[in-house]
Amino acid sequence: MPIRVEDIIKLLCTLSENKKMKAAVKHSGKGALVTGAAAFMGGLMGGPAGLAVGGAIGGLLGAWMTSGQFQPVPQILMELPPAEKRKLYNEVLAIIGHLDWTDAVQLFRLVMGSTTLQEQLLAVLVGYLTKKLQAQIRYDD
């Protein structure tokens, strides 16, 4: 039976919530912009030495800004754009496509009753978060 993208996202939210997963998505573009701006300002104010000092200070500030705050993975999943949700959906279907279910509730029961399926789906989710979003994963216990 076809299942909606939102149902798969809710399933992944439930799994990640059970594992108390949090992720910090890095914003490297913002950090590079801050580093470059600080180096530029340092160069304007202090010449070559100012450029070096501004670059160093900007690099530290950029690293601090992009370290990312950890957010619950379900929150990140719900905020994904539709195209990204669809990509994740397709990856999950490759794992659960062989299962026989009649509705989303039955699919949830099948997955929640199988440690193997849960581990496979969590592996897909972690892979997606780390590779596509360059996120850092943390488990709060």
Keywords:
single chain, 141 residues, mainly alpha, three-stranded antiparallel β-sheet, 6 helices, 9% strand
Helix and strand run: HEHEHHHHE
**Morphology call:** elongated
Total beta strand runs: 3
Integer tally of domains: 2
Radius of gyration: 21 Å
Low-confidence stretches: none
Main β-sheet description? 3 strands, antiparallel
β content, as a range? 5-15%
Task: Kindly name the structural category.
Answer: mainly alpha
Describe the protein's architecture and organization.
It is a single chain. The protein has 2 domains: 1-25 and 68-141, no CATH class; 27-67. A 3-stranded antiparallel β-sheet has the order 2-1-3. The two termini are 36 Å apart. It is mainly alpha-helical and 141 residues long. The chain has helices at 5-18, 28-66, 73-78, 82-96, 104-112, 115-131, and strands spanning 21-25, 71-72, 135-139. It has 6 helices and 3 strands; from the N terminus they run H-E-H-E-H-H-H-H-E.
Quick recap of the structure?
This protein is mainly α and 141 residues long.
Helices and strands, with pairings:
Blueprint: H1 5-18, E1 21-25, H2 28-66, E2 71-72, H3 73-78, H4 82-96, H5 104-112, H6 115-131, E3 135-139
Antiparallel strand pairs: 1-2, 1-3
Helix pairs in contact: 1-4, 4-6
